[in-house]
Amino acid sequence: MTSRSWLCVVALCACAVSAVAADDARVSKAFTSRAQAWVESDPSARAGARLGDLLTPEVADHFEKIIRAAFRGKNGRNMRRTIREPVPARTVTLRVNDAYPEDIPTTTMPPTLLSRLPELPKELAYRIIGRALVLVDIRSNVIVDFIPDAIPKVR
């Protein structure tokens, strides 16, 4: 392969990486806009919310890539320690618009992971219950949306 061919390959790879980064930024921006709109919406309008309204399949795929990469990274073991639940948690059935279970400890989001996820409006927070990434309205303690198996299994 000539040096000119290698330059073409490098240029194509750079374009592909740039396109993926632009798509990731688009997905994050769309999610952030929807989250802000949810916060600003009338509470009665939220009553019909369903799984995937904010964390759409596209957003869930994007988040799962971010989460898998974070757990594979050098801080993966420390993140697992951060989210380890002190006592075995009971099985929880999550539902959008249900109250965040009072008897489930509020898991600390690992800062390494939190810094990679899109920033939320101050009224919302990321939480982890079991393997689910949960979006909670901290004012009302209500589950806004969630991704059921977002957190990788422990190997």
Describe this structure in words.
By secondary structure, this protein is α+β, with helices and mostly antiparallel strands. It has one domain (3-147). The protein has four helices and three strands; from the N terminus they run ααααβββ. Strands 1-2-3 form a three-stranded antiparallel β-sheet, with no helix packed on it. The longest helix has 38 residues, at 3-40. The model is unreliable at 2-20 (pLDDT under 50).
Task: Tell me the β content.
Answer: 5-15%
Major sheet details: 3 strands, antiparallel
The secondary-structure class comes to: alpha+beta
State the distance separating the first and last CA atoms. Answer: 41 Å
Kindly report the average pLDDT value. 80
Question: Layout of SSEs?
Answer:
Elements: H1 3-40, H2 57-72, H3 76-83, H4 111-114, E1 124-129, E2 132-137, E3 142-147
Antiparallel strand pairs: 1-2, 2-3
The gist of it:
The protein has 155 residues and is an alpha+beta fold.
Q: Any descriptors?
A:
globular; 3 strands; alpha+beta; disordered N terminus
